[in-house]
Amino acid sequence: MFKRIINFIKKKKIILLSLFFLAGGFFFGNRILSSQKEPPYETAQTQKKDLVISVSASGEIESEEEATLKFQTSGELTWVGVEKGDRVEKWQAIASLNKEKLQKELQKELLDYMDERWTFEETTQETYKDQALTEVIRIAQEQAQFDLSRDVLDVEIANVTLKYATLITPIAGIVTQIDAPHAGINITPATAQFIIANPEKMVFYAHVDEIDIGQVKQGQTAEILLDAYPEEKINSQVAEVEFSSITTSGGGTAFRVKFCLPANTPDQKFKLGMNGDAEIFIQKVENALTVPFEAIQEKNGEKYVWLISEEKPRKQIVQTGSSDDFNIQVKTGLQPKDRVVI
Prior knowledge:
The chain is α+β, with helices and mostly antiparallel strands. The chain has helices at residues 2-37, 99-129, 135-163; strands at 43-45, 47-63, 66-70, 75-80, 87-88, 93-97, 166-168, 173-178, 185-187, 193-197, 202-209, 221-226, 233-247, 253-260, 275-292, 297-299, 302-309, 312-317, 319-323, 327-332, 339-341. Strand 13 and strand 14 form a beta hairpin. Helix 2 runs antiparallel to helix 3.
């Protein structure tokens, strides 16, 4: 009886092991077959879509109307009538130098002029008394005329200096910079600078790389996205493409492109120096047959794709057209719903 039980258990083990190996063989066999059915490469299907070709560039907001004001002479700064951030009106006085010294210098120049004028008149009168005009007298007369003219110029310069001792802004706007905000110091034209910017004439300047600038034309539509307002796209257009280039921080060559901005809000939504990006729409190709960029191969100046035909890829020559950041137009060589290797 005991032997029968042992033999029964052995038979059961053999059956279980057989079933295990059969199940394992079936599982791994299906895995191998299924792996053989899947191609060892990724594919994509041709699609018809609208291609929007654009150029992107970064930039910042500037004021189209800005004035940098400096005194034209050195002197003591006796009055500063504005602070940074103040609004000023057109032709408003904003600072002044010590005029007392300038007035005395003007009076001195006037006295010098009068003295030279008397000398000139005496020389002229002596010439008329002596009808026989000698070379010596003629030279003296010319010298007197030169001295008189020089004194006239000195008087005019002193008068202009006095006039420009008061700094007046030629535009309305906001004071954005003051180099010398306090009175009582001596300044020179190089050390006292006032900058006024008009907040009602704000524009966006983008730096377009020289590789792309040939595609950018005045009047093209654009969208501007400011870092300060990432959810708000501003519709604009190319207002101007500057003729001269600039050097970027990375040492490259770029061109400044100007875009108009909407009228500024009362709370000065658009501020100087705000950074952002501009997307310039160059071209739109409607209903274009496209494939992903990765599908296009090129060799010896010939472009081609690997077209899936009867489950096997074959080389297919194509002619491409416009492209965006992800897809490229295929003009000839492919049909809708063709599948290519990427």
